[in-house]
Amino acid sequence: MEDRWQLLREVKAKEQNRIEVEAFVPPNSPWFSGHFPGAPILPGIALIHLVWQAISREAGERGEELRLHTLKRVRFSQPVRPGEAFSAIITGGEPGNEAVYSFKVVSGENVICSGLIAAVKK
User: Fold this and answer.
1) Which one of 8, 24, 71, 77 is most buried, counting C-beta atoms within 10 A?
2) Is position 86 within any domain?
3) Does some domain include residue 1?
4) What is the model's pLDDT at position 107?
5) Domain total for the chain?
6) What per-residue confidence (pLDDT) applies to 1?
7) Is 49 a catalytic residue?
8) What is d(CA 55, CA 66) in angstroms, rounded to the nearest whole number?
């Protein structure tokens, strides 16, 4: 069964300390419910969810389980509309007690969202 909340479409690239994923938000996505009728845009928390999903999935492949600790300097620059495709580029995450990841969500050359996510091992 398809997860209607799912945004992550595929992992495009994975290198040491760098992940790039493609995402797509279908027009019927529940993320748009009530946000905003007549002029729907993807809520910012959905973008954070996408980034966190990519980070935690990659950590799981290494046998680690992470807990989101803090968000810092998160900026939303432009909206995502129904049916749009976009990408997330995540760097950092050096092993240690707290791993800090820098991310940006982009559509072509346009930055949609950027910031830092700190995670700790469970």
Assistant:
1) 8
2) yes
3) no
4) 96
5) 1
6) 44
7) no
8) 9
Residue 2 included in any domain: no
Tell me if 73 is assigned to some domain. Answer: yes
**How far is it, in rounded angstroms, from Cα 89 to Cα 77?**
16
Q: What is the pTM of this model?
A: 0.92
Determine which one of 14, 35, 49, 104 is catalytic.
35
**Separation CA 114–CA 16 (nearest Å):** 20
Structure confidence at residue 71 (pLDDT): 98
Residues in the chain: 122
Domain that holds residue 44: 8-121
Question: What is the 3 state secondary structure string of the chain?
Answer: CCCCCCCEEEEEEEECCEEEEEEECCCCCHHHCCCCCCCCCCCHHHHHHHHHHHHHHHHHHCCCCEEEEEEEEEEECCCCCCCCEEEEEEEECCCCCEEEEEEEEEECCEEEEEEEEEEEEC
pLDDT tens for each residue of the chain, 122 residues long: 467 788 888 899 888 899 999 999 999 999 999 989 899 999 999 999 999 999 999 999 989 899 999 999 999 999 999 999 999 999 998 766 789 999 999 999 999 999 999 999 98
